[in-house]
Design brief:
The complex is a heterodimer. By secondary structure, chain A is mainly α. Chain A is about 75% helix and about 0% strand. The chains are: A mainly alpha, B mainly alpha.
Chain lengths: ~270, ~300
C-alpha cells in the first residue's frame, strides 16, 4: 500500500514529538557548564566548577551514596520477593492466582501520594520514619511488582515439563530451582532487578514523606535544589543522572535483546 | 541418591496433606511478598479509608466539605480539568507516535522506540528541572523568542496551568504510546487492505476501520494516563509554583503542614475509589497485565 500524504505528515510529526520528549532534558548540560554562581545559560564561557563542587560536596556525595545503598538493597529484596512470587503464581493452577496477581500489582498503579500516605501512617508507630529500613521496605513494596511482571513474562515462555523432567530425574526442589528454572528466566530477573533499582533511585514522593534528616537521598536533595532554584550544582547532578540513565538504558537494551534471542531458541 | 534429597522427601511425606499441598503448590513462594503487601501496604490504606470517616469526628463530615468548602471544590475542578486536558493531548500525540511506529521500517521503529524509552527513563526530577530552565521568564524559550523578535514581553509559562500542562503531557506521552502500540500491533492488517481494495479511500479506511479497531487501545491509554495524572505530585508542585493546587499537593499540605489527617484521608479515599473504578472499566477493554507488561519491557 502506498503511504498517503497524511501518513507521511504524521511520520514527521511523530519524529518531532519524539524529539520533544527527549531534547528538553538536555538543557541541563549547558546550564551545568555556566561559570556563574547562579542558574543561567553560559554565554561563551564554560566552566566545570559546578561538577567540581558536586563531586567535592560532602552533602551531595553522601546523598549519592545513600541512594546507591537504598536502591541496591531495594533491588536485591524486590528481585528475590518478586521472582519467588512470580514462580509461585506460575505454578498455582487455581483460579485465585490471577486475582492474587492483580492484587499484588496494585502498588504500581495506586497513586504514589496514597502510597506515601499509607507508609507515613504506618511507619510512625513502627518507628521506621527517616531510617534506611523504612525507605528500603517501602521502595521494595513499590518495586517488587515490576519484578513480578518481568519474571512472569519470562516464565510464560518456559516449558513446565522441564521442571517435571528435572524432578523426575531425582533433582530436589532447590536444585531444580537453581539449575533449571532460574537459568531460563535469568533475563527477566535481571530486567526486573534493573527496573527495581531505577524505581528506588528515582523515587521522590514516598521519600518526601518518610525521610527527614538522617536519610537524605539524591532525589530528595535534587527536589530541594530545584525548589530553591538558584544553585547550578543541581544542573550538574541532573547531567550525572542523565548519564546514569543512558548507561542503564544501554544495559537494558542488551538484556532485552538477549531475552529475545533466548526466546527464539526456546 | 543424595541423602539430603531423601531426607527432605521424608519430611514432605510426614507433613499433613494440607500443609504439603500448600508448600508444594507455589503459595509458599507467593506468601512472603503477599504478606508484605497485605500488612505493610493495604493495611495502612484501609486505615486511611477508616480515618476518612472517623477523624476528627465520626461521620461523613470530611466528605461534606467537598460541597461546603469552596477551596476544596476549586482544587477538585482544577485537578479534573488538568487531568482531562493532559489525557486528551497525551492520547492524541501518543496515537500519532504509535501509528508512525507501527508503519515505520524495522530500523526506524527501533530508533523511535529507543527515544521513547529514554524519555520514559529520565528521572522526573531532571525533566521538571529542565522545564524550569526552559520556561522561566528568563528561560531559553522566552529569551530565544525575544532575541529573534517574535515577542516583546516574556510569555508566562510558569506558576500557571500552562506550565503544569506542558510538564504533564511531556511526562505522560510514553504511557499513552505503550498501550496504543500493543493494540495497533495486534491488528489484522488484511482488514485495511480489504477496505482499500473495495474502493474506500485512505481517509475512509482510517476513520471507519482503523480507528474503531484501535478503540480498546485508546480507552486503555486514556484511562492509564488519567489515573497517573490524578495522583501526580512532582510536576504540578514545581511548575505550578503553589499557584496551581492539585489534589496530590493539597494532600501533602494537609498531612505535613496543617496535620489534618481526616481531610487528607478523605481526598485519598476519593482518589483511590476513582482509580479503582477506572481500573475496572479498563480491565473490560484490555488485559491489565498486557498494558503493564508493555510498560515494563
Amino acid at each position: 500500500m502506498k503511504a498517503g500524504v497524511f501518513a507521511v505528515l504524521n511520520r514527521w510529526w511523530a519524529w518531532l514529538l519524539l524529539l520533544f520528549l527527549v531534547l528538553p532534558a538536555l538543557i541541563a548540560i549547558p546550564v551545568s557548564l555556566t561559570p556563574k554562581r547562579f542558574l543561567s545559560m553560559p554565554k561563551g564561557e564554560y566552566s566545570l566548577r559546578h561538577f567540581e563542587k558536586l563531586f567535592t560536596s560532602a552533602d551531595w556525595m553522601s546523598s549519592f551514596g545513600q541512594s546507591a545503598v537504598i536502591a541496591t538493597a531495594t533491588s536485591l529484596l524486590a528481585t528475590i520477593l518478586g521472582t519467588l512470587c512470580a514462580i509461585g503464581l506460575w505454578r498455582i493452577t487455581s483460579r485465585w492466582s490471577e486475582v492474587v496477581r492483580a492484587f499484588l500489582l496494585l502498588p504500581l498503579i495506586i497513586p504514589q501520594i496514597i502510597s506515601a500516605m499509607a507508609f507515613y501512617r504506618l511507619w510512625i508507630p513502627l518507628g521506621l520514619l527517616d531510617s534506611y529500613p523504612g525507605l528500603i521496605l517501602a521502595h521494595t513494596i513499590l518495586a517488587a511488582p515490576m519484578v513480578l511482571i518481568t519474571v512472569s513474562a519470562s516464565l510464560a515462555n518456559f516449558d513446565p515439563r522441564l521442571e517435571q523432567a528435572s524432578r523426575n530425574l531425582g533433582a530436589s526442589r532447590w536444585t531444580t530451582m537453581k539449575r533449571v528454572i532460574l537459568p531460563s528466566i535469568r533475563p527477566g530477573v535481571y530486567a526486573g532487578a534493573l527496573f527495581a533499582f531505577i524505581l528506588s533511585w528515582d523515587e521522590i514522593v514516598v521519600t518526601l514523606f518518610i525521610s527527614k534528616f538522617t536519610v537524605y537521598t539524591l532525589p530528595r536533595r535534587m527536589w530541594n535544589g530545584i525548589r530553591e532554584n538558584t544553585d547550578p550544582t543541581v544542573a550538574a547532578a541532573a547531567v550525572v543522572l542523565i548519564a546514569v540513565t543512558l548507561v542503564a538504558f544501554a544495559v537494558s537494551a542488551i538484556l532485552s535483546r538477549r531475552r529475545a534471542l533466548s526466546e527464539e531458541h526456546a | 541418591m543424595d541423602p539430603a534429597i531423601k531426607s527432605r522427601g521424608d519430611i514432605e511425606l510426614k507433613a499433613s496433606p494440607l500443609l504439603r499441598s500448600l508448600t508444594t503448590s507455589g503459595w509458599m513462594l507467593v506468601a512472603p511478598f503477599l504478606a508484605l503487601v497485605v500488612f505493610l501496604y493495604l493495611g495502612p490504606i484501609a486505615n486511611i479509608l477508616w480515618l476518612s470517616v472517623t477523624e476528627p469526628d465520626p461521620g461523613l463530615g470530611n466528605y461534606a466539605m467537598l460541597v461546603e468548602n469552596e477551596t476544596m471544590g476549586r482544587i477538585l475542578s482544577t485537578t479534573l480539568r488538568i487531568c482531562l486536558i493532559t489525557t486528551i493531548l497525551s492520547v492524541l500525540f501518543g496515537y500519532s507516535i504509535a501509528y508512525a511506529m507501527v508503519h515505520a521500517s524495522e530500523g526506524n521503529r527501533r530508533r523511535m522506540m529507543a527515544l521513547l524509552l529514554v524519555s520514559f527513563w529520565i528521572s522526573i526530577l531532571v525533566r521538571t528541572f529542565s522545564w524550569l530552565m526552559l520556561l522561566g521568564n528568563r528561560g531559553l524559550v522566552n529569551t530565544t523568542l525575544q532575541d529573534i523578535g517574535v515577542i516583546a514581553q516574556p510569555i508566562v509559562f510558569m506558576r500557571n496551568e500552562l506550565g503544569v500542562l506542558i510538564g504533564m503531557v511531556h511526562y505522560m506521552i510514553p504511557y499513552a504510546v505503550l498501550p496504543l502500540l500493543v493494540s495497533m500491533q495486534t491488528l489484522d492488517t488484511r482488514v485495511m487492505a480489504a477496505s482499500r481494495n473495495l474502493g474506500a479511500s485512505g481517509g475512509q479506511t482510517f476513520r471507519r476501520i482503523y480507528l474503531p479497531l484501535t478503540k480498546p487501545g485508546i480507552v486503555a491509554a486514556a484511562l492509564l494516563v488519567f489515573i497517573l495524572s490524578l495522583g501526580f505530585y512532582v510536576t504540578p508542585a514545581i511548575l505550578g509554583g503553589g499557584k496551581v493546587l492539585m489534589i496530590a499537593e493539597y494532600i501533602s499540605v494537609q498531612l505535613l503542614i496543617t496535620l489534618k489527617w481526616g481531610t487528607a484521608a478523605m481526598l485519598g479515599a476519593l482518589m483511590l475509589f476513582g482509580v479503582l473504578a477506572m481500573l475496572w472499566i479498563m480491565s473490560r477493554f484490555m488485559s491489565l497485565g498486557r498494558v503493564f507488561g508493555g510498560a515494563a519491557s
